[in-house]
Amino acid sequence: GKVFPISPDDWRILYPEVPHKLKQLQSEGYKLVIFTNQLSIGRGRLRPEIFKAKVEAVIERLGVPLQVFVATGSGMYRKPVLGMWDYLCKKANGGLEVSLQESVYVGDAAGRPANWAPGQKKKDFSCSDRLFALNAGLLFHTPEEYFLGWKQALFALPDFDPRAVDPKAQLYDPPNASLTSSSSELVVAVGFPAAGKSTFLKKHLVSDGYTYINQVSNERLKLFSPYFIASFFPLYPSFLPFRTPLVHGRNVWHCVKHHCKQEKV
C-alpha cells in the first residue's frame, strides 16, 4: 500500500508469489505477523476504522490468518524500537517462546538507495525494517529477496552504529571532567525501559553519594510532584530514572525547575 494510507482500498498485492508463499508458511506451522508504523493515526490524519478496514481486506485477499501490531505514536512501540516485538513475545503469543533461529522478518524499509535494481528508481523511505530485525536478532530479507529470490541489494545503515562503540572508551571529555556536582542538583534520566538508565546512574552517581528515587508505578507518581521534589531537592543531590518518551510527560520537569528556583535540573 501507500507509505501514508488514506483509504481502505489504496493497496495491492506486491507480487503474485506472495499469497502462495504465505499459505505455504502457514501450512508448515509458521505464525504470520505484521508490525507496522502508522503515525498518521496518532496524529489524526488517518481514522483508525479506515486502517482497520484496510487490514481486514488485505487478510481476506491473502487467505491466511495474520496477527497485526500497529504503532500509532512515536514512542517505544515504533519501529525500529522493539516495543511491538517485545509485546508479541511476552504477552501476545499464547505463552509460547518465539524461536529467533526459525523466524524471518521481511520488510521494504531496508535502507536501499535510488536505482537499487533495474526498474527500481525510488530509494527506500527509511531503514526501519532492517534495523528492527537487527535489534530483535531476526534474519532479514526484503520482499524481492524473500518472495522472488533476488540477490541482496546495496543498502546503507545509519552512520552511528552502537555496536562499534568501544566499551572501554574514556567516559569523560576532557578526561579530568566530573560527572557529579558538589552542590545539590537533580538528575533526570529519560529513556526507554532497559536502556541502561539505572545501571549507568547507580554506577556513576550513587557511588558518589547521590540519592536514587525510582518511578515504580503510576500509583506512586504523586510522589514525584513538583512540590515533593522541591522540598527534597535542596537537601541532597539526587537522580530519577524516567521513561517519559512523550513531550507532555517531560513538562513536569519545567515545573520542578520553577519551584526549586534552581538551574541544575
TrEMBL record:
<dbReference type="InterPro" id="IPR027417">
    <property type="entry name" value="P-loop_NTPase"/>
</dbReference>
<dbReference type="GO" id="GO:0046404">
    <property type="term" value="F:ATP-dependent polydeoxyribonucleotide 5'-hydroxyl-kinase activity"/>
</dbReference>
<dbReference type="InterPro" id="IPR006551">
    <property type="entry name" value="Polynucleotide_phosphatase"/>
</dbReference>
<dbReference type="InterPro" id="IPR036412">
    <property type="entry name" value="HAD-like_sf"/>
</dbReference>
<dbReference type="GO" id="GO:0003690">
    <property type="term" value="F:double-stranded DNA binding"/>
</dbReference>
<dbReference type="InterPro" id="IPR023214">
    <property type="entry name" value="HAD_sf"/>
</dbReference>
<dbReference type="InterPro" id="IPR006549">
    <property type="entry name" value="HAD-SF_hydro_IIIA"/>
</dbReference>
<dbReference type="GO" id="GO:0046403">
    <property type="term" value="F:polynucleotide 3'-phosphatase activity"/>
</dbReference>
<protein>
    <recommendedName>
        <fullName>PNK FHA domain-containing protein</fullName>
    </recommendedName>
</protein>
<dbReference type="GO" id="GO:0006281">
    <property type="term" value="P:DNA repair"/>
</dbReference>
<dbReference type="GO" id="GO:0005634">
    <property type="term" value="C:nucleus"/>
</dbReference>
<dbReference type="Pfam" id="PF08645">
    <property type="entry name" value="PNK3P"/>
</dbReference>
<dbReference type="InterPro" id="IPR013954">
    <property type="entry name" value="PNK3P"/>
</dbReference>
